[in-house]
Amino acid sequence: MKRPRLTQQNIVIAIFVALFATFSTLLPGFRTADNMLTLLQNVAVLGILGLAMAVVVIGRGIDLSIVASLAVPAGLVLQMVQDGHSVLAALLSALLLTVAFGLINGWLIAYAEVPSLFATLASGLFLAGLGQVAFFQLDVVQWSTPLNPLLWLGQGSPLGIPTPVIMFGLVSVLVAFFLRLTRLGAFTYAVGDNPFGARVTGVPTRPIIVLQYVLAALVGAFAGMVLAASVNSMPTRIFNSTLIYDVILVVVLGGIGLSGGRGGVINVVVGTLVIGTMLNGMTILNVSYSEQNLIKGLVLLIAILADSFINPRNEETAQQGDI
Amino acid sequence: MPFAMHVAKIGRNTMLRKRSLGWVKPTVTALCLLAATAVPALAQKGLDEPFQGPFKKDLAGKVVAFVPVAMNFDLAQGWYAGVKHELEPWGVKIEVRDPNWSTNAGAQAVTTLLSEKPAVMIIHNPDVQTYAKLLQRAENEGIYVVQINMGSAYRTTAFVGANWIEVGERDTEAVVAACKGKSNKIAIVQGALSAAASAYTLKGVENVLATHPEIKVVSSQAADWDAAKAKAITQTVLKQNPDLCGIVGFWDGMDIGTAAAVKEAGLTGKVFVATSGGGAQRGACDLVKSGAFDLDLSYDVPTQAHDLAGIIKWLLSSGMKPGSYKASMYTTLIPITKENADTEGTCWSLAAVTK
User: Fold this and answer.
1) Most B CBs within 10 Å: which of A279, A286, A287, as the mutation test of the B interface?
2) Which residues, in sequence order, are bridge partners of residue B123?
3) Where do the domains of chain B lie, and which CATH numbers do they carry?
4) Which of A310, B56, B294, B349 is deepest in the core (most CB within 10 A)?
């Protein structure tokens, strides 16, 4: 029988179980079904963004512009409807914008060969700036009544499950399907694991990279609509927040190596659950904001330290592009 | 500067103002009578008003620099539009430096302004410390510094804005009153920890809670002015305490999220949500009407803009040395509730002021 390996994923699962057990015994209100659903609901948008990021990271890239993809297209929908355009026109414009943005990102990285870190850092700033200059009047774009048929994206609980959680589940299934069961998904792993090897064996590496960024932008924009429906507005200032670090955190904590070609949807789910459990438990305990940051940082450091002790890096495992 | 002292006095003691106004009526009547007898002799020539010429000269070509924490939200837009509307016709140039929520960019903007030497700087501080030294330098170099709504630890020539302590006290009093005979459990949704507005408001909340030991605060957390965070916190708190009777929120722009969580839990009307904001139609009155907020204390932005413009006119035409007198103009709060949310004039609309 194979001994369970101490991978980062297993370490994080262990941390999750430990946290969960501690909170369950210490906090009477923690282990109720209601609270579990709230826990999931609070991190659903983060989880969806994590999935988008995972696709790119598995392909050995990183997408720092994902929060802009979350904020700007969804904000555009809300703003256009507010200005009196039809819902359909607004949705189509946002879709076009998202696809165009993904294509530009992909082109910069695959064809112009700009490192993804810099390309998406700049393009994210550009998109967020474009939104502020050209689209939005105010940084919080309010939800208007003609959009109410779309409110179910973020509010309500069919069968007792809040819709953001259902959306997270849905996107998880779709991304898992793409990564595991389609040829393009297999190519993504191949490109992430060894881009030159993949090219030699005939994988169209450049179009695959473009596809990853288009997918990430689309999933990001979808997360934006879920968020907007959930809080009845699109706070576009979210681009300036630390959300992008949380997204990277979810992905890396879950065990998807930044060197590419490893991991999958399950890692994102585990990473999201850890963050969700920590946030929820600390909110119930009424831990102050600064103490929450302290604890979050500590848990992360422990996870990363444990990983580098158990799986030390050497010349063989370290890859180019490793951060 | 007798007028500056006078303004300060009014701020400090309204009783004095009431008493001292008693002599005004008879004096004015007497002056009118005097004028009525004196003017006919001069009526054919017209009389030059001796003060308007210098006033025009004092204002023409002056630069007023505006550094908000960001330009793209209702408060900053409202202040900018109001000040521009009031001062531009006098030939005053309004320049905006938009740090877009970045404290560093803001400090840089203020530093650059020090060498550009505008006549006046309108400063909206992201926190109480960062700009303090810079503002002191600005006044030493002869720039009038007017602070708006979020003050720094360093007091400058003028401050226009809400009294956050009062905001915290009045919101909490309303929540405490709504909790009477209920669970007495309340939650507090703070803004960003470093912001003066948040810290001062919290002090106001504490002041009231100190006199109401029966009230239990089940949660007091910072949501960073972020609606999504406010919603997440409130959801968790409501799941743990479904019998919560009230929430004190620190800004209506963020408390959209708080209210959304209350609504989703089916507790609208049962949990009293009190908050505060600039009183814009969409962000305040509309949300009070919909039942999302039960009380929204408005520090009416157009009034603040008028106060800003007024004090700038006074400063520019006075020629006083920057920083030699320091005075405050605290905004009179407008409590927005179901009763007045429909009334014309309770809220203001951005479209109307930016026209």
Assistant:
1) A286
2) B67, B147
3) 1-44 (no CATH), 52-162+301-324 (3.40.50.2300), 164-298+336-354 (3.40.50.2300)
4) B294
